[in-house]
Write a structure and sequence with these properties.
156 residues; alpha+beta; five-stranded mixed β-sheet; 4 helices; 5 strands
Length: 156
Amino acid sequence: GILSKVNPLNTTILLYNKPGPGQNTDPATCQTPTVGDYCQGATGMQIAAPGTAAGSFWFLTTHLANGGTQPEEAEQLINYVTQRLGGPALVCGDFNSVPTDLSIQYMLTAFNDTWEACRQGDRFTYPSNTPQERIDYMFPTPDASIQWHAGIGGNT
């Protein structure tokens, strides 16, 4: 979910399609999922950005699956943001992938990486008690400006 002090201009939900029997991604079904339903996805909101060229931007959060479907989900997310939403966007979330994984390489074909752009502080996010790997990311579209990158608890 997303918390915001401002009212969104628009909202959106993307449910990732996962092939196979019993892998239901229908929005109505995901309201009350049953065992075997697949309801991973992304949620987003368009926020006014007065004074910018675009006038608004999309903020999306996601949690990719853990178990081999991350590249396909990343491709669906890229296509959704670039082809359906358009305009500046920031996609954040748990990608369950380290930087060398295919899903992250896919994301970098359409988005920038805030940590790579800023190179400040520790980038590791997993496991939470002693982070040694990076699986959480913030990906802005190339038309979004990265001013700074900060984290909680000393991680930047």
